[in-house]
Amino acid sequence: MNLHVALLLLVTLVWGATFPVLKVATASLSGIETSALRFVIAAACMLPWALRASRRAWTDGALLGALVLTSYVAQAYGLQFISSNRSAFLTSLNVLMVPLFGLAFGNRIFLRIVLAAVLACVGIGLMSWDGGSNLVADLSTVAGAAGYALYVIVLSARAARHPARNLAATQIVWMAVLGTIWMICTDWDTNRLHTLAHRVSPEILLGLAYLGVVATAGMLFIQAIAQRHVSADKAAVIYAMEPVFAALFAWWWLSEGLSFKAALGGAIVVFAVVLSEWKSAPESQAA
Fold first, then answer.
1. I need a labelling partner for 42 at 20 to 30 A (CA). Which of 69, 85, 165, 211 fits?
2. Which residues of 216-240 are buried (b: 16+ CB within 10 A; e: fewer)?
């Protein structure tokens, strides 16, 4: 396993811990409030590098930031109505969306990667599927997965154009600005803005700090480094480890169940990630 794959696995580990944190936060805050506040915290950390970024980095950062913002808000909204495990499963569909969407960008599809993606989704289905559907929340979460699939593709295409810190910083600042505007527009006609400070308990504030500093600022920076050297479809398979870590954290933190079927599903996901890294013969067997 090379260093850049290991970095992306670290990203999935950190992201896995966000599901329980988001579940706690969205008990008091809306999806857009949670997202906007985490991005503002992250932007404060990355502002020095954003101020040194080029105009082209700001342009690419705007596109990437808008895609991530849409994905995060859609996921956070869905988490208000469905379990963290179910959210993790639906979010993982981006593993299949990345190679399929990639065709529209002229990317090749390798059979080994497609097989790994299918196995990852099967494993996550075994691990996470628990019923409890909510049509609007499910559709919102799937839309978030689609947004993130597009983000992975665009990031792989544009990461090499800029220093990683500058690209991550511009994304985050755009996400903070757009997220704050979105929050204000959403809450303008309600009393939610006036009660926002009272709804942010010390526990939620600590969770927002983790989401902003570690899961957003730190992980977007690491992604911008690693995806210079890892293709979008392979990165998507690696990101399938996120719900494996999410289920473990949900079991430990939120006391959500972790059955034998879930453990089997997690093992299949791990195998899918290993398969995606398998240096077998001719990689030229492209679909």
1. 85
2. bbbbbbbbbbbbbbbbbbbbbbbbb
Phi, psi of 37 (to 5 degrees): -65, -40
3-state secondary structure of 286: strand
Q: How far apart are CA 238 and CA 189, in angstroms?
A: 42
Tokens standing for residue 144:
């978030």
Identity of the amino acid at 142 = V
For 178-238, give the DSSP string: HHHHHHHHHHTTSSHHHHHHHH--HHHHHHHHIIIIIIIIIHHHHHHHHTTTS-HHHHHHH
pTM assigned to the model: 0.74
Burial (CB count <10 Å: 0-12, 13-18, 19+), residue 75 = buried
Q: What is the pLDDT of residue 129?
A: 64
**Are the C-beta atoms of residues 176 and 5 closer than 8 Å to each other?**
no
Residues of the chain with pLDDT under 70: 1, 84-85, 128-133, 250, 253-258, 277-287
Interval 132-151: pLDDT, tens: 667 888 889 889 999 989 99
Q: What is the DSSP string of 139-179?
A: HHHHHHHHHHHHHHHHHHHHGGGS-HHHHHHHHHHHHHHHH
Instruction: Return the DSSP state at 110.
Output: B
